[in-house]
Automatic annotation (TrEMBL):
Primary localization class, coarse: membrane
GO MF, one example: G protein-coupled receptor activity
The G-protein coupled receptors family 1 profile domain, residue ranges: 49-305
Membrane topology: Multi-pass membrane protein
Lineage, broadest ranks: Eukaryota, Metazoa, Chordata, Craniata, Vertebrata
Record's keyword annotation contains Membrane: yes
PANTHER family: HYDROXYCARBOXYLIC ACID RECEPTOR 1-4-RELATED, HYDROXYCARBOXYLIC ACID RECEPTOR 2
Keyword match Heme: no
Protein name: Oxoeicosanoid receptor 1
UniProt GO cellular component terms: plasma membrane
Amino acid sequence: MLSEPNFTSTLNLTTPVPGGGGCPPVGIQLEGLILPPVLAVDVVLGLLGNVVALWIFCFKLKAWNPNNLFLFSLVIADFLALVSLPLRIDALLRGHWVFGDAICRINLFLMFSNRTASIVLLTVVAVYRYFKVVHPHHRFNRMTRRQAVVVSLFVWLLVVAPRVPLLAFNHIKGSGDRTQCFFFTSYKEASRAIVVLVAMHRILTVLEFVVPLALLLFCSVRISRFLRQRQMGKPDKVRKAMRVCAAIVAVFMVCFLPTTVTTIGLWAVRSYRPWDCNAFYTFTQLNIVSLGLNFLNSALDPPSSTSSPAPCSGRPCWGRCLTACAAGGMTWMDCRRRQHLGLSQPTSRN
C-alpha cells in the first residue's frame, strides 16, 4: 500500500519496486523547507492565544454555563495539539528524530487526536449557539453544567478511541542520523494492521471535515437568515454577525480543505495508479505541507472563544431585559436573543 506522509527531509524520488512492491519509502524535501516556519507561527500565535484564553477561563470567568464548558474543552484541545508541534519542528530542522520511540508515539497521538477534538468541539459550539439563537425554547437549551461535562467527555472519548492504535505501533525507522518518526511506513513494508490503520486514518480525515463543515454551514446560514427575517439589531450589527458566521466557515475551509483534498488524491492514486510514483510523491508533499494549515486553526480558535457573547444570566439582567422589552415593544424571547448575540437593547419609542 502507499505510504502516508512522513516528516523526513531528504529527497529521493524513485520508481516502483520491481515485482509489484509499489513505491518505496522516500524522504521528501519540501516539508523541510516550508513546514518549520509555518508550524513555528502556529505555535507562537496559538500558544499565546490559548494561554490567554485559559487564564480568562480560570481566573476571570464567573459563570460556568454549558457554552463556556464547551469552549474550555476546545481551548484544551487546541493547546495540546500545539504543544506537540515543537518536537516535530525540531525533527524537521535536524533532518532526523532524536527523541525515541515512546515520545514518537505520544507525539503522533497528540497531533492527530487533538486536531480531531478541535474540529468536533468547534462544531459542538456552533450547534449550541444555533439552538440558543434560532430555537430558544428547545430542551437542548436547558442543558445543565453536569450534562455539558458528560457531553464533553463523550466527545473526547469519541475522538481519542480511533487514535489509540497510534500508541500501539513502532513508527521509528532507520538509525543514527537517519532515524525518522514516520506516521506510516510504505505499503511495501507495512503489516496488515498498519494497512487498516492507514485506511481508518484516511476515512477519519475526510469525515471529520465533511460532516462538521455541513453542520457549520447549516448553522451559519440559519442564524444569518433568522437575524435578517427578525431584523434583530441595527443593520450594521446584523451584517457584522453574519460576517462572523461567514469568517468561521471560511477559516475552517482554508485550514482543513487542502488536507482533505490531498488525502482523497492519495487514496485515488493508491486505488487507480499504484505504479505512478511521481503522482504519489506530489500528493504526499502537498498533504504534508497542508498540515501546517491544520494547526493554524488552533491559533485562530481562541479569539472566537473568549470574545463570544454569552447568554445573560442573573436577576439584574432579567430586570434590564424586562425594562428594555417594555420600552421597545419587543417580545421577551427577542430581547433574550439580543442579549445572547451581544446586540443593543431597544430604546423607548416615546
